[in-house]
# Entry
Amino acid sequence: MANKSPFRYFRTSPEVIRLAVMMYIRFPLSLRNVEDLLHERGIDVSYESVRFWWLRFGPKFASEIRKRRSQSMRCHSNWKWHLDEMFVKINGERFYLWRAVDHEGEVLESYVTKTRDKKAALKFLKKSMRRYGRPNAIVTDKLRSYGAALKEIGNADRQETGRWVNNRAENSHLPFRRRERAMLRFRRLRSLQKFVSVHASVLNLFNSERSLQSRPNFKLNRAAALSEWRQLCAD
# Structure
């Protein structure tokens, strides 16, 4: 039996829903910004509809992107990982967003915790390795939690620390920081974890280091990413 379309109960076309979700997640836009941009294209939708669409379809799109890219990512992501944690405030309370990025800038895993101790680092590492396997090298800052966690799982000899060696992870935080400002921060831990997971998958799909590519190759890769996006959850 063929899978039923997830758009079957919506009067709005799947193309419009995909476009709205992509604009909201990919670019540092608010819900009302997306509503205004769609209005410029002759599409009359409420920003609340955009909110509902991203909450309903964002995880589905992210899951399908990961499924399509999982095999290739698992094959090439075991060379070197860059791990780093960043501060995120929710209603004035500080939380920690752990992120793993491979040597090509792909965001492998995002995980939110209340602490950044050994227990949190160990849980984050086990979750990442369960999905992608063990890397050959792990680049971190000098936070002791990383060393303690890696020692427990038997990867202490693969850890690399040093000045500027973790710039890959530091730079990968910038797109999320821009989204955080556009969304005026987060209000719940659950919504933060949901958004960072979806945002990471969309970023992986569209991220292209154009400074390292010729213009023709960049245009081909961008067109391929858009084509793949338009096929997500297709009938």
In short: The chain has a mean pLDDT of 89.
